[in-house]
């Protein structure tokens, strides 16, 4: 039976309080267009050129990862290479039709996650995180099919290196070869958040553990989140339970039950978390009673209801039924947004 996860307040929470510690990402990746201007490890802008090469790209004249310091390079470049990212970037450069989406950040975050996952990962959850693979594929989601195929090809090229031929590799992919890649890419599309700097500029995406990813959406949320960009060496990794003021609940057949073991012991990837990269902290924006569900928004709340719903459907394939969306007549705020 499928269990849906949610997070609830474990204690009374006043407005404007941090309710999680700064949580490190399981996987993150810069947006494709920022690869040559920002550090792939800490996401900060690269110093002006020329700066000493800190990492030699696998393929010359192909987009790659660059780093602002030798610490960032030694923290991140082994995963960049072992996850098959250089092969994906080479593939997308020479065969852009392999993933017409343009931005490769979701595929790269998924490749990195795949590299650090335990070999036996159960479906429909991987490391506790919902994949939503069936739901996304059921709605003919080409992002998942095309993206998983590109990920599969990149991993195959890495494994066959140096004897691969891109054209021969593409021709030899069978329709059901990329099931694992489909699951992990679906997980990224379902759970990743856009990382923004202090000015609100979007830098890339990150996937966090269950303490963050089990928080559901509401168009009238009681919490928000912010990022802190961390340069290695970072302060010691917070145990996920330190300062964690929210507790996980599993809902099946409408009934919600608290998950006894807490988040940390359920999080098989907690030990694998990179410790560097953008950390996320959740903060209350309303008073939250003990036992009340904690929610954030997955969409721009300054849009009319129809646009919010359409965005949530096209990205996540769910219809929001929060109090604001089901209010009839429309709330005062929604009336004002509709008339603009
Ligand atoms: C980041 S996960 C949130 C945790 C998720 N409920 C779980 O069981 O792991 C995002 C997914 O949760 C579900 N979800 C989140 N907010 C929702 C809402 N307000 N109504 C219905 N489904 C929601 C959707 O399936 C969405 O793709």
From TrEMBL:
CDD domains recorded: SET_SMYD (cd20071)
What PROSITE patterns does its record include? SET
Origin superkingdom: Eukaryota
Read off the Gene3D superfamilies from this record: SET domain (2.170.270.10)
| Residue ranges of domain SET in the record | 162-299
Q: Name one Pfam family in it.
A: SET
What PANTHER family does the database record attribute to this sequence?
Answer: PROTEIN SET DOMAIN GROUP 41
State what protein this is by name.
Answer: SET domain-containing protein
Q: What organism is recorded for this protein?
A: Malus domestica
